[in-house]
Amino acid sequence: MQPFHLTATGFNINYLPQYIAHRHGFFSEQGLDVITTIPTPWDGVLDALADGSADMALGGIWVPSMYRDRVQNYTVFAQIANRCPLALLRRTSCKEFGLADVAKATVLMKSIGGASVGLFFKMLLRENDIDPRYVDFIQDLDGLMLGNLFQGGMGDFFVTDYLSARAIAARNPDVSIAMEMVTQGEVPWSVYYRETSTITQELRDAQKRFCIGLNQGIEWVLRHDAESFKDEIAELFPKVPVDVAVDVVNCFRRNGMWTTATIPPKAFDRWQQGLTDARFVKQPLAYESIVDDWPAKEAQAVAKAR
């Protein structure tokens, strides 16, 4: 069995097919012993790649994008999350909602753990002709603190991960979900990558086998209603009411959170434009300059041949 070390920026419900692939032996069937570590703080994933203790990192594609030709070049070879896993909470006293209501409002938005939350929400505003400069953001605190403050009366809206949003709305009748961002189009939200200079054909072969197992995990989740494996979900996410977690998983299943390990070029281009508008990159990166889709496409070919 070949050890294959993964360093991840967190433990998230939108990574579920990877956890299923590990628990159900799909990676081991490919001769891979996938070992996962989650450093604190999250940017320790870059240290793990640099010192060779990890074979790949899992996190937002904005990191390898902004580092490109500035600090270190990374190559992305697969994705796990094909959509944004956030939600927008509002107060139930507001009977109607349109995204334009966010203009001139105060939005709480967690930022500890990375920039993806702000990047996506502000991109979504710009795509809907809403200038983020006309929104008051409070985003320099962690999600738990902001969640408590929002429920206590601070701000008009709260952007957080969908699982937390559902849990808050389930126990607090004064707030409700205004928008599920999984419905707001494709982006390569969470991807696997490593330092470009360290990639060999032998490693690409291991990446291909990883993608085969990952695709099997995705296919398995898409075939099974979350209610049918709620005990497994409860084991993975014991701090969340299981009925809430089941609903979130089924929402993600319905709305294209998980497709295949291959990154769609159009979704990549959309996210690159968002990163450019946020000044994270000078101009949108070309797909081929940062993505090596050979492992994921080879894995798809294997799946079709089965």
Automatic annotation (TrEMBL):
Q: What is this protein called?
A: 4-amino-5-hydroxymethyl-2-methylpyrimidine phosphate synthase
InterPro entries noted in UniProt: NMT1/THI5, SsuA/THI5
Biochemical pathway: Cofactor biosynthesis; thiamine diphosphate biosynthesis
Family stated for the protein in its record: Belongs to the NMT1/THI5 family.
Reactions that this protein is recorded to catalyse = N(6)-(pyridoxal phosphate)-L-lysyl-[4-amino-5-hydroxymethyl-2-methylpyrimidine phosphate synthase] + L-histidyl-[4-amino-5-hydroxymethyl-2-methylpyrimidine phosphate synthase] + 2 Fe(3+) + 4 H2O = L-lysyl-[4-amino-5-hydroxymethyl-2-methylpyrimidine phosphate synthase] + (2S)-2-amino-5-hydroxy-4-oxopentanoyl-[4-amino-5-hydroxymethyl-2-methylpyrimidine phosphate synthase] + 4-amino-2-methyl-5-(phosphooxymethyl)pyrimidine + 3-oxopropanoate + 2 Fe(2+) + 2 H(+)
Its biological function? Responsible for the formation of the pyrimidine heterocycle in the thiamine biosynthesis pathway. Catalyzes the formation of hydroxymethylpyrimidine phosphate (HMP-P) from histidine and pyridoxal phosphate (PLP). The protein uses PLP and the active site histidine to form HMP-P, generating an inactive enzyme. The enzyme can only undergo a single turnover, which suggests it is a suicide enzyme.
Which cofactors are named for this entry? Answer: Fe cation
Q: Which GO molecular function annotations are given, in alphabetical order?
A: metal ion binding; transferase activity
Query: Which GO terms of type biological process are on file?
Result: thiamine biosynthetic process; thiamine diphosphate biosynthetic process
The chain positions of domain SsuA/THI5-like read 12-102
Q: Which UniProt keywords apply?
A: Iron, Metal-binding, Pyridoxal phosphate, Thiamine biosynthesis, Transferase
Subunit structure and binding partners: Homodimer.
Residue ranges crossing the lipid bilayer per the database entry: none
